[in-house]
Amino acid sequence: MKLQTNLKLAGDQPRAVQELISRFLSGVRINILLGATGTGKTFTIANLIASLDIPTLIIVPNKTLALQIFQDLASYFNKKTVEYYVSYFDFYRPEAYKPHLDLFFEKRTQRNKDLMALRLKALDRLVKKEKVVIVASVAAIYPTASPDDYESNYLFLSISSHISGLESGSIVGLRKLLIRFGFEEVKESFFLKNHEIGKFSFVILEKGFLRIKITLRDNQTDYFLVLIDSSALRVIEISRFDSESEKSSKNLNDLLILPMTDRVGVEKEDLRQTVGLIRKELKIQREKFIRDGRKEISDRINEIVKRDLNDLLETGYCYGIENYSSYLEKRQQGEPPFTILDYFRKVFRKKFLVVLDESHIAIPQIKAMANTDSRRKDTLINFGFRLPSCLDNRPLRLKEFLDRCENLLLVSATPSSFDFSLSPSSPVEQIIRPTGLLDPLLEIRSKENCLEDFLTEIRHLSEGNERSLLYVLTIEEAEAATVYFADRGVKTACLHNRINVFNRHSILLGLRRGVFELVVGVNLLREGIDLPEVSLIGIFEADRAGFLRSTSSLIQMIGRAARNSKGRVILYANLMGENLRKALEETERRRAIQAVYNSENNIVPLTIRKPIGYLPGREEEDELTAQVRQKCQEKQQFINPSEFVS
User: Fold this and answer.
1) Which residues lie below 8 Å from residue 159, measured CB to CB, with a gap of 6+?
2) What's the pLDDT tens digit per position in 582-595?
3) What angle (nearest 5°) sits at the alpha carbon of residue 620, between those of residues 614 and 624?
């Protein structure tokens, strides 16, 4: 776990690293790093990891911030040391029932194969017992396959070897296995100048031979051709082909085929006992509904579960298979699901570190996710859409999460009182920035004509290489403000959670590169986003009560301008509420400490200089940013962010 960067610790970083090392080595399990925005907390964490030489899981509240931290750490370590683990859904709506409307909403999802491939790569590294740093979203507390099951799910093909272990011992079993592994069957013509991971084709040839073409998740440019003697199930030839040229680049002796998903369907032989247990629970639940005089509900659950079990027995998979995961994984009732933390625990025992970034957000998030999941499923159970065992397919509860973290570092610019209660030690403070930057200057202005006022301020920035952010309260307000500024010649983008993670990141890179002058957002721009070009921030409705304008939220938003020596923040408010007053006082407290340090050490504040990165696996300017750049050059504005919503 060696750093590969020319950067050196500065400001408060050296002291913070040494204090944290001392505490962890002395057996303090949970510590807090209270670091002001822009003080280089990520670099401090990187040095801590390298000094302890410890595999690490870093959990971040959202995918956008996770991607930024992934890039930062990949620039500090060897790129092969850092992996990315987030939800593989661009869109996910769980099944739900609204009794007052008598409406059932089926689960709707939109999967992202690139995110799945990155997620599986992280698990691969762990089962291979490699020391890694994995940057994750809160997907880290959600279920995945057990480490034992994941490690055993693969297909190894070798020249002249018999393919064993197939259901029914035939080519039909091979096809079923690939489908269980998450591969999609396509026509052979698909592979002509086309490459998409997770595809395969079967072509029966003369004289009893079978030709398979397949694309794998760990190869983004080639497809593989496997020739098999169907009668003997013996591998004759394995070749790798370039997808563009269709030319064979190499003959291979063997080929390892890994699943396209972390949860693989089940073979029939393993299902008999499982199906029997599910039927037993179904019988108990039906009898309960009949005793309560709810025969219609009893019939509903009977119909749904029987359909699921028929599908399971036929294909090894069914819609909503995750609701039967406790049976399929042989877990006891109420036992927590397997998560990525179980992989760390199995491989490294107690010798790993968990970093909970922006802990003031992440801990309430963990609490809320478990509670929300339970409430939704209680309704499904009560009205006969799911069996009670579906409750065991859930995110970890907070206590379960904390129990699995052998060494935990809470990181925040604004730790909560609950954060402080978890650690026996006082927080390690990191207030001084490496380049001497002070917290930004603050100014309170009236909410009247705030759009026009902020437009004037933006135009004053146009002569320099400076950018701005604007915070509003809703997505609708953000989109309306985007159109307002774009119509007046400001190159503007809108950022919200309806835009997929890679496109969100591209918009932020576009701001840094000068494709945009302004990005308007609600919540995603608040924690951790590193934009040193931003010198001006506007916060609308700064006096509004509620979570989005709490003291910690305001401090986090103010901090986005703390990486620029000209940083300033305009807070549009007509009242001086308690939240706003505390945010102003804390900012002034930190600014005073920083000013004294600079004076004593003859430091002149300098804007942070940070290379502009690219998306994982892309060395050129990513497609979205190039597309947006062209739009801006043509129109001199950007007025339709919804084009990039997926």
Assistant:
1) 235, 236, 237, 238, 252, 253, 254
2) 999 999 999 999 99
3) 70
